[in-house]
Design a protein that fits this description.
This protein is an alpha/beta fold. It has one domain: Rossmann fold, CATH 3.40.50. The chain is built from 7 helices and 7 strands; from the N terminus they run αββαβαβααβαββα. The protein has a 7-stranded mixed sheet, with helices on both faces. About 40% of the residues are buried.
Length: about 200
């Protein structure tokens, strides 16, 4: 990649194309219209919020940073029961006792309730600890939403009920893309939930 390719204008154009061409698939692997999928995701968050269910988010490295930011937005803006699973004492305990590939799965197996949501983020979609957690949540009758990039046949993309995939091998752009989509979801959740509450108030 040349210095010209790294210029801000070029990178912003590339990022815009990646977001515009994001692909979403359902549990069967069938491609879904992107806006329809985002609305479905928001609707599920609202449904869970009204029933007191929780939202758990997991990721490694840069994706863990995205998780922390998203939890802040979900709690502050959306007032969701949202939690990251990155407490250092808990994670090092699980990793030491059961292996890092099972760390998130072990925690979720204990705390997850049916219909809770897991948002699983992995740029490559190949992180074993993220994939194992997604499988555990499905087995416990939870809902899995995945965010990945890189290869279109990555394992994580096959494990969610809603799967967002960015067609790029660039870590930076994939990570920022995941954050962008989740930020958009938080903003739209807040708008949609306030609209619904307003309608309910009028009906009463």
């Amino acid at each position: 990649m040349s210095n010209k390719d790294l210029a801000l204008a070029a990178r912003s154009h590339e990022f815009s194309e990646i977001i515009h061409n994001s692909v979403c698939t359902d549990a069967s692997g069938k491609v879904q219209e992107l806006e329809k999928s985002i609305k479905q995701f928001i609707k599920q968050l609202i449904y869970n919020h009204e029933r007191g269910n929780s939202v758990y988010l997991i990721g490694n490295g840069g994706s863990a940073g995205i998780v922390s930011h998203t939890v802040t937005d979900f709690v502050n803006v959306c007032r969701l029961r949202a939690f990251s699973l990155h407490d250092s004492s808990l994670m090092t305990c699980m990793a030491n006792d059961f292996g890092y590939e099972n760390a998130f799965a072990r925690v979720l197996n204990t705390i997850l309730r049916p219909k809770d949501i897991l948002i699983a983020i992995s740029s490559s979609g190949k992180s074993a600890n993220i994939c194992n957690a997604a499988q555990t949540v499905t087995q416990k009758n939870g809902i899995v939403v995945t965010f990945s990039g890189f290869h279109e046949n990555n394992p994580l993309r096959k494990l969610g009920h809603i799967n967002f995939w960015l067609n790029s091998n660039d870590y930076g752009l994939v990570e920022i893309g995941h954050q962008f989509i989740l930020h958009n979801v938080a903003d739209r959740f807040n708008y949609e939930y306030q609209r619904i509450q307003g309608v309910k108030t009028m009906v009463v």
